[in-house]
Design goal:
The chain is of the alpha+beta class. It has one domain. The chain has helices at 41-53, 55-66; strands at residues 6-12, 32-37. The radius of gyration is 16 Å and the shape is flat.
């Protein structure tokens, strides 16, 4: 992580019985989700550039990718006007 990044949340798969069957659950998948916050799009760009330039990060990323069954997804979201993120 760089100084521009702020970890807002991290989630992992909970392997438990689905007690709410109307909500579909993929029981055969393991998921890790991290939500990062940045002060601006420029801060996000600096963060991405710093990671791309880091040999330690690149080594970690390549090792992590080797154990995945599906490619990673990165989504760039923006808070709505009513969001408490960034306040």
């Amino acid at each position: 992580m760089t100084a521009d990044a702020r970890l807002l949340a991290a989630f992992v798969t909970e392997h438990a019985e689905n007690s709410f069957p109307r909500l579909p659950v993929r029981a055969d998948e393991n998921v890790f989700i991290s939500v990062m916050g940045f002060a601006s799009t420029e801060a996000h760009a600096r963060h991405k550039a710093a990671l791309a330039a880091s040999s330690a990060w690149q080594a970690f990323w390549q090792a992590a990718q080797a154990g995945l069954t599906k490619p990673t997804e990165t989504l760039r979201l923006s808070p709505t006007s009513q969001s408490l993120v960034g306040r």
